[in-house]
Structure formats: C-alpha cells, structure tokens
Design a protein that fits this description.
By secondary structure, the protein is α+β, with helices and mostly antiparallel strands. It has one domain. Helices cover 26% and strands 24% of the residues. It is built from three helices and six strands. The chain has helices spanning 22-39, 80-87, 104-112; strands spanning 14-15, 48-53, 58-63, 67-72, 96-100, 115-121. The longest helix is centred in the N-terminal third of the chain and has 18 residues, at 22-39. The protein starts with 13 loop residues before the first strand and ends in a 14-residue tail after the last strand.
C-alpha cells in the first residue's frame, strides 16, 4: 500500500492586528471579502473565517445576506458572555449562534482584542456534528 503525500493546507493563518474602530472593521471586512472572491470558488460551501483565540479555542464565522452565523467550538465556549455583551444576543443552547447581520461590526470589535490569528475556511459544516474542514 502506498501512502499519499500530505497535502499542504490551502489557506494559512494570518496574524491578527486588533481593530479599534468601526472603520477598521469595515476595512477588514472589505479585505476578507476580496480574498474570498479571489480564492474561493462559487461552488464551494461552508465558507467563512476561523478566528483562533489567543487564550484558546476557535470561533468559525459565516455571513449570509441577513445573518452572521457563529460556530463556537467547545474549547472557546468561555467567549459566550463577550458575544452576548457585544451583540445583545442571548447565548444559544448549542454552539451555533445566529445573529442579525447588523451585529457584525459590534461582534468583530468585541472579539478583536482576543484574536491571535484568522484563517479562511471552506467545507465547514456550520452547526453540524462530524464536520469536515479544509484550511
């Protein structure tokens, strides 16, 4: 039996620079949207951003036309009170948060000081068990 060589990750983590103003967040959003349009095909699903938290844990974020979906991994559950404080949303029973799209800037500002790096993701099954992930 031959072993296949390990495939290099498709995307690499980007070091995080804390965002301090709504304008900083808007620039970050524009930059990530541009990257996604250039690097991710229209047929791909589970597209989003993974925030790697400095104190431990991962938060996956996907935006739709009218919502922000967060998949807060169990190792990042400690961040739930901050998400609630930043967005005014109540914590869900599970690990998937669905927020109105107008909460995106407040959310990013609230998370900003806790993020170590971010990475684009595809194939993430937001809110589903048995996820597959391609980074």
């Amino acid at each position: 039996m031959t072993s296949q060589p390990e495939q290099a990750p498709r995307f690499k983590p980007r070091p995080w620079t804390p965002l301090e103003t709504p304008q900083d967040v808007e620039l970050w959003i524009d930059d990530h949207n541009r990257c996604m349009q250039e690097l991710i095909g229209p047929q791909e699903t589970g597209v989003g951003v993974c925030f790697i938290l400095a104190e431990g844990g991962h938060v996956y974020m996907q935006t739709t036309a009218d919502a922000v979906i967060l998949d807060v991994e169990p190792d990042a559950a400690w961040i739930a009170p901050l998400i609630s404080a930043a967005t005014g949303a109540e914590a869900p029973r599970g690990q998937t948060w669905v927020l109105p799209d107008d909460k995106l800037i407040q959310l990013i500002l609230g998370l900003s000081m806790l993020v170590e790096s971010s990475i684009l993701v595809t194939g993430h099954r937001f809110g589903a068990r048995g996820r597959t992930l391609s980074c």
